[in-house]
Amino acid sequence: MNSFDELGLSAELLRAVSEQGYSQPTPIQAQAIPVILDGRDVMGAAQTGTGKTAGFTLPLLQRLSSLPSVRGPRPVRALVLTPTRELAAQVGDSVADYGKYLPLSSAVIFGGVNINPQTAALRRGVDILVATPGRLLDHANQRNVDLSKLDILVLDEADRMLDMGFIHDIRRVLKLLPAKRQNLLFSATFSDEIKALADGLLDQPVLVEVARRNTASEAVAQTIHPVDKNQKRQLLSYLIGANNWKQVLVFTRTKHGANRLAQQLEKDGLTAAAIHGNKSQGARTRALADFKSGKVRVLVATDIAARGLDIDQLPHVVNFELPNVPEDYVHRIGRTGRAGNVGEAVSLVCVDENKLLRDIEKLIKRELPKVVIAGFEPDPNAVPEPKEKPQARPPRRRLGEKPKTQGGERPSGEQNRRRRRRSKPKNPATQAA
Ligand code: AMP
Fold first, then answer.
1. Which stretches make up the Helicase C-terminal domain (predicted)?
2. How far is the CA of 390 from the centre of ligand 1 (A)?
3. Rounded CA gap, 155 and 80, in Å?
4. pLDDT tens digits for 293-313?
5. Topology at the third CATH level for domain 220-364
6. Which ligand 1 atom is nearest residue 25's CA?
């Protein structure tokens, strides 16, 4: 498929697409758009970076615009659920960009920000709603939103939603929807849990699939720098300076580690910001904007915060610490080498992390090159520190089990706040914060 014209999209959408500068559809778009336009349910195997957002947003907009539009307060017709606030904001931007020539309205709702403007938007009437599950349920409980006439449901990054313990919230949302609707489910991985969710949700789905990016990782040069733990920060500053890296995304395992590292890098004279679930929405948005504009050179992120961030053509990703879960390594380095650009992923690995490294190499089925940097040679006699408590993420939950927190960063402040809120009487003053 060489052109968007052949996909059956309306002139309004083609115009918006061409203004985005897209000359041809990505493989996931070429597969998904005609099927969704046909009204079929879709199970999409695609990660961020494949163009999946336009893959479901464009046909969704076209389907809604072909139905008669209603003025004033009206029920929501399409709902996109996302795991994180950042992804919700990005999908919301895409809906607004692609739908700019159509008479449809959209809104984005997520936790961590004042609920009142969201309520006002919902009351004005919204055709397409992009939401994180928790805040959506808050609005549903307050009867701010009517989902009973929904035409299309999209679950974006469904695997992450389950990882973050949203299955119960998703099930609650599903109960608010009409039985007859079109369902689109996108996920980077297909665990038994995802398959169980899909089985209950999708009606004779068409499977659309693109080769998993970065399992082969041809576009990403990956290097391991063995180093002592207490030399990692100095090595990172050295690599950034010596190689003159202008835009670096650095992963740490914990929120605390992200904050501390960003502060230390600032002391080394590098502009740095941390992004993680404890930061206010404003601070996260600002950090991301500063990073994109080049005002901040180093963005330090935890896995959950970085998930779904749309940062194009990122040249350098650094694993300051290896992730506990090997799959997260693949997600992390998926931030670089996008859209045909060659990227570089560097991992600073101390003796404690050798086991994690072996697990990663097993997963990606190749041994990664190890390069010791002169002046940062690791102590040959170092032995792994005994662990105080196991760090590994607990096994994936089965449907119906209670949510458990995971190693490293916890799901999000939003979930924790909601759990607390449910267990105590509501206080309107804290609700809106
Ligand atoms: P996504 O996988 O939806 O997060 O999209 C990843 C990036 O690809 C986004 O920055 C999109 O703007 C961009 N993109 C989506 N579709 C196309 C296309 N057909 N051509 C070029 N870039 C695209």
1. 231-379
2. 39
3. 6
4. 889 999 999 887 776 566 656
5. Rossmann fold (3.40.50)
6. 19
